[in-house]
Amino acid sequence: MEHTSLRRKIHPKYVYLGAIVVLFGLSSYFGYTSYNQSKEIEMLMQERNFFLLETASSTLSREEERALASSTIAELSERLSLTAEELDEIEDNYREEKNKNDDFEDQIKEISGTVGVLDKLSKTDKELLQKYSKVYFLNEHYIPEKIVPIEKKYLYNESVSKSIHGKVEPFLNEMIEDALEDGIKLWVVSAYRSYNEQASLKGAYTTTYGSGANAFSADQGYSEHQLGTAVDFTTEGLGGGLTGFENTPAYQWMLDNASKYGFTLSYPEGNAYYVFEPWHWRFVGEKLARDLDRANASFYDWEQRKIDEYLISIFD
Ligand SMILES: [Zn+2]
After folding, report:
1. Distance from Cα 108 to the centre of ligand 1, integer Å
2. Radius of gyration (Cα) for the chain, nearest Å?
3. How far is ligand 1, taken at its centre, from the CA of residue 59, in Å?
4. C-alpha to C-alpha distance for 111 and 95, rounded to whole angstroms
């Protein structure tokens, strides 16, 4: 009864109104839900897009990186090739400069070598290898650059001092010592003679032999003695004299060995210039003495021009 009475109390218009409210509420709910869903979808879509975008952009940057990298490589390789070309060029230039320098160095060496040769030649007495003859004499005022006394033990007459060119002395000493080792005694009878000494000697010869003294090789050889490079030797069995020297073992030893010490026989047997002087040996340097020996020639056989080539090495 009470229920019936309530139904009775609710007017139908409120039922409709209620239904409308409920419907509205439901639609609102569903609408809201769908709104939320669409919002959610939208967000998801945005996220997706963002992801895609990001992915795309990161892909692009990688491509860009790749492109950049390859262009960098290309650039680097280009630069490298340029550098290689430059290096080649630099190397070429360097070689060219080096060659120039080498040429220059060679020229300097050549010049200094020439200067050295000229200097050595300028300091070498050119008279030492001059050929003297009846028409070409050594100047009467000529004095060797250095004259030293010969050791007394090498002299036949120790009481009379003898001198020799200072640069020839070591060669002389060595030769006499080596001869002695072979059992050969070589004594110096005469060596350096000044012009005045020679003049008085010539005077003595002239007194003794008259005009025939001019034929004496002592006359011709005096220029060589004035040089300080010529030595007259004697040996055992000659009583200190020169005559007969050609028949002694000492003479044979000299023929076989003197050139090794730079000495040569100025006036050999049968020479076309002067009489045979087996005792008279002139220092001309080892090279020239050996070459003359090999050529079986004498000092006076050769042209002065040819002999002069040996001047530079006379004391070598
Ligand atoms: Zn002599």
Report:
1. 45
2. 60
3. 112
4. 23
221 CA distance to ligand 1 middle (Å): 6
**Can you list the positions of beta strands (E) in 146-301?**
147-149, 163-165, 187-190, 230-234, 263-265, 280-283
The token pair at 282 is 């002139």
Determine the distance separating the centroid of ligand 1 and the alpha carbon of 223, expressed in angstroms: 9
* Cβ atoms of 245 and 267 closer than 8 Å: no
Question: Six-digit token pair at 124?
Answer: 């070498």
Whole-number Å distance, alpha carbon 14 to ligand 1 midpoint, is 175
pLDDT at residue 214, as a whole number: 47
From CA 242, how far away is CA 234, in angstroms rounded?
A: 6
| Residue 268 structure tokens | 């050999």
How many angstroms separate the alpha carbon of residue 6 from the centre of ligand 1?
A: 182
Cα of 149 to ligand 1 centre, how many Å? 17
Burial class (CB in 10 A: 0-12, 13-18, 19+), 277: buried
**Would you say residue 217 has pLDDT above 60?**
no
Beta strands 163-165 and 230-234, pairing class: unpaired
Entry pTM? 0.64
Q: Are strands 187-190 and 230-234 parallel, antiparallel or unpaired?
A: antiparallel
Q: Which CATH number fits domain 126-313: 3.20.20.70, 3.30.1380.10, 3.40.50.300, 1.10.10.1760?
A: 3.30.1380.10
Tens of pLDDT along 98-116? Answer: 888 888 888 888 888 888 8
The structural domains of the chain, with segments of one domain joined by +, span 2-98, 126-313
Rounded to whole angstroms, how far apart are CA atoms 184 and 285?
22
pLDDT digit string, tens, across residues 60-112: 567 777 777 777 777 777 776 667 777 788 788 888 888 888 888 888 888 88
